[in-house]
Amino acid sequence: MPGAPFIIVAIDGGAASGKSSTARALSERFNLLHSDTGSYYRAVTAEMLRRGASAEDLGSVKSALADLRLGTRIEGRSARIEIAGSAPGDEIRGREVNDAVSHFAAIPELRSALLSYQRGQADAARRGGFAGLVMEGRDIGSVIFPGADFRFYLHADPALREQRRVKQGQVDKVAERDRLDSSRKTAPLSQPAGSISIDTTSMTIAEVADRMASVIAPSLARP
Ligand code: C5P
Questions:
Q1: For a pocket test of ligand 1, which of 45, 138, 162 has the largest count of ligand atoms closer than 8 A to its C-beta?
Q2: Tell me: the pLDDT tens digits for 46-84?
Q3: pTM above 0.85, yes or no
Q4: What CATH number does the domain containing 195 carry?
Q5: 141 domain-assigned
Q6: Cα–Cα distance for residue pair 30/184, rounded to 1 Å
Q7: Structural domain of 171
């Protein structure tokens, strides 16, 4: 659409609350670049573990961060992180990373290493000719893009979220990660004021995406 505005959509919420599936659906519907920041924290965590860094030893984390070379590979509508030129594999969804990621994500130095990288995804979306960016995570509407055009916050019953992970064949302590993510000092998981809250417990992905699209579409149609 010539002259259409470039939009930023922020989706936050707890583990397995439906963020990725709905973000993917919106990226298809509105031609937005999809950025899953959880996968960035997972990739950096896998790299920390590979280098023998421990979340309890800040020195080891800082020295691993010092020469972390991050890049972006766009595959279809998805922005994938690269570390030293390679995209991480399935190990980022495995038990070891599931157990460690929230501990590393609580470290302010590690979060600031990812801050400008995440903001830079908006430029990657513009360069790639996308109509905007849909970014999902825990602090997107509060810290990364507090001025995003649309900010959503997804909730879902914790038991159902555990079941979603089991169905995906994953071993994941959803409630434990939420507890760690909500209680950390830097950029905790919390619903930002002014964001639109959606309880996805008894909704399908299509219903959640429709609800979000009904908020987004009118402002795109405006001259
Ligand atoms: O979204 P996902 O469950 O894959 O995220 C994995 C972990 O990455 C979260 O539990 C959280 O510790 C961390 N994370 C974060 N901030 C984000 C995205 C993810 O701290 N914006």
A1: 138
A2: 999 999 999 999 999 999 999 999 999 999 999 999 999
A3: yes
A4: 3.40.50.300
A5: yes
A6: 34
A7: 7-218
